[in-house]
Amino acid sequence: xxxxxxxxxxxxxxxxxxxxxxxxxxxxxxxxxxxxxxxxxxxxxxxxxxxxxxxxxxxxxxxxxxxxxxxxxxxxxxxxxxxxxxxxxxxxxxxxxxxxxxxxxxxxxxxxxxxxxxxxxxxxxxxxxxxxxxxxxxxxxxxxxxxxxxxxxxxxxxxxxxxxxxxxxxxxxxxxxxxxxxxxxxxxxxxxxxxxxxxxxxxxxxxxxxxxxxxxxxxxxxxxxxxxxxxxxxxxxxxxxxxxxxxxxxxxxxxxxxxxxxxxxxxxxxxxxxxxxxxxxxxxxxxxxxxxxxxxxxxxxxxxxxxxxxxxxxxxxxxxxxxxxxxxxxxxxxxxxxxxxxxxxxxxxxxxxxxxxxxxx
Length: 361
Prior knowledge:
Order of helices and strands: EHEEEEEEEEHEEEEEEEHEEE
Helix content: under 10%
Structural class: mainly beta
Number of helices: 3
Strand content: 25-35%
Radius of gyration: 22 Å
Number of strands: 19
Shape: globular
Distance between the termini: 55 Å
């Protein structure tokens, strides 16, 4: 078994969260009221029991053309199958003071060159299964859907960055889009990073969700450990406010959340930097306090090894350059250069005392 430790402070993320829409199949009945810690313990038992007692057809994925529809998970071991517990990657994250354990299975790493950050946009197909009763509560295998990861459940934000997207796509005469060699995987999530609804016995009190979400978002599977089978088709780097800084770089305290109260709101105006065109409210737009440049190389590795100054950052998304036939001819990376004109240790776009317009220098 492989083990990966991920630590993120993600207790309070002020977005509405949902990874899947309402569905006619609500799954099992909601479990009794419980604390976050008790729920995590219950879910861990359910998930680990499932992983110990179920097998998947591993040998099928030795075939490079295998896709999600080829996946078979059963309680009976057959030739070429492997116990899930022996194949999954175990990971952890910190949810406030609670350590949350979850698992994912990498059936096939996408042949594309980009993986998303927690703050990017992805196009996926997926199926959601309630591990309590094996009920499918959401099936979008035939329906590619695009999501901004910060608007999805915490589990999605942590699992998808471990996969690469498809290498290319083609459009058929009927408009059907075929993706070549996408990332294919399965994630096993406790409800604490999926859909956890904490209800109170006081009828006058509002229902509280963790993550914050609408009451019907999870199709009746709140407080249920879940499995998502998925293909990662495309990755799109997100710059929500269009200020030239990728959204993942506006996570100021590096806690894996781009909207986290005052920590991600430099000027404390109630609008987090990721949504604020003037992060420090100094009257100069953020885009005028930075410089964006590009570097092109024949390999992705060469882009990733670009020598950077201390005030420069390479955007996570690296563009593939293609010729007319679709073959990759090179790669283009984007470099964001920040400035500290008054040398006070704070970059201009975060410093209300520094109103220098870089383009005028």
